[in-house]
Amino acid sequence: MIAIKAAAIATLILLAALTFPQLTLTEAEAGGVKNSAYALNQILERAIKNVQTMLNEEGGNKAYEALKIRLKEAENLAERAQKALREGAYQDALNTSLKALTIVKSIAAEIKESKEEQRVAASHSTLRMSILLSGLKNLTDSAAAKGYNVSNLSGKLEAVAKLVEEARSLSARGDALGAGRMVAEAKRMLGHVVSNLNKAYVEKKSKLAEEYVNKTLGRIFSAEGVKDRFKEQIEELKSSRHHIQAGNLGAAMKQINEAMKLMKKSLSEELKKVRDEIQQIEKRLNNSKARGVDVEKEEKMLQEASKLIEQATTLLEKGDYLAAKFIADAEAILQRLR
Fold first, then answer.
1. Which pTM does this prediction carry?
2. Distance CA 29, CA 36 (A)
């Protein structure tokens, strides 16, 4: 294969040097038209074979189909030149061979240009694959640090790294086709890595979502009087567990978020209502105190209710819906002060 390519390159150099002014009729007459016609026909035959070899090496390259059609035209001209030689029409053979060589020369130039474009494209593809591989390695390492089950991906990533390195080496040697095959295989393997990474992500998120739901329900059920406040949201949370177990994480997260949003809204409204009432009672007690009424006991009870509301606010900000119990306890105190 190396010898064939070397011969092809040598012929291309010869063709690149061949121009009409160099082979005028006067020069042909000097060496004999017959000898020139035979020599040129042999050059043409070798050139056609070498270009055929280069085109056949990349049989799957659709861009070369048009070049093959033009090469067929050159082959037909070469046959005409050989026929002319057999018939002794040497000048006709010479002219026909020159015409065929002009076609072969243009094909060779386009192959050279195409190969350079392929080499550049292969180099860019290899670089993009290398960047993608680096990004996936970072994602995998980050996922592993967070507890995702990605232990099976390290071996696959190492295999992809070897393919990318091989593609880089082939591209540097000018083997664009070989580099392209390596890149295609690396891309296929990375597709599996991404799929497995997504699967690990879903599994981890599903586990975390279910743990969150169970923890939230546990907190709600453990607090006296809280469960009755959120009957509808509790059912939503229970339903979300079925979605999680069925692998429908999107629907589960939507239900969880909606339930949490409604619970937070409800508690926020209750907190505001209780704060407003505390201010009203505080104002009433101050008026009574100004008239000389002993309200020390009531002030202590109000302070206790205020502390409970502060605790409820802190819990709610953290997303802990046990805040409902503290609101309920504060409301119980306010009920005694009304």
1. 0.48
2. 9
Angle at 11 between CA 7 and CA 14, to 5 degrees: 145
- 208 near 148, Cβ under 8 Å? no
Residue 285 corresponds to which tokens in the numbers above? 């007690």
The region that residue 147 occupies, defined by phi over 0 for left and psi between -120 and 50 for alpha, beta otherwise, is left
SS3 241: helix
Select from 110, 117, 114, 101 the least CA-distant residue to 14. 101
List helix spans (H) across 58-175.
65-86, 90-145, 153-172
Residue 291 has, within 13 A of its CA and on its CB side, a CA count of: 7
Residue by residue, pLDDT tens for the chain (338 residues) are: 433 443 444 444 444 434 333 344 444 343 468 888 888 888 989 989 888 888 887 666 666 788 888 889 999 999 999 999 999 888 888 899 899 988 988 888 887 777 766 777 777 888 888 888 888 888 888 888 888 888 888 888 999 899 988 988 888 887 877 888 888 898 899 888 888 888 888 888 888 888 878 877 777 776 666 666 777 777 787 788 877 877 777 888 888 888 788 888 888 888 899 899 999 988 988 888 888 888 888 889 989 989 999 998 898 888 777 787 888 888 888 888 87
Q: Give the pair of three-digit tokens for residue 59.
A: 């049989």
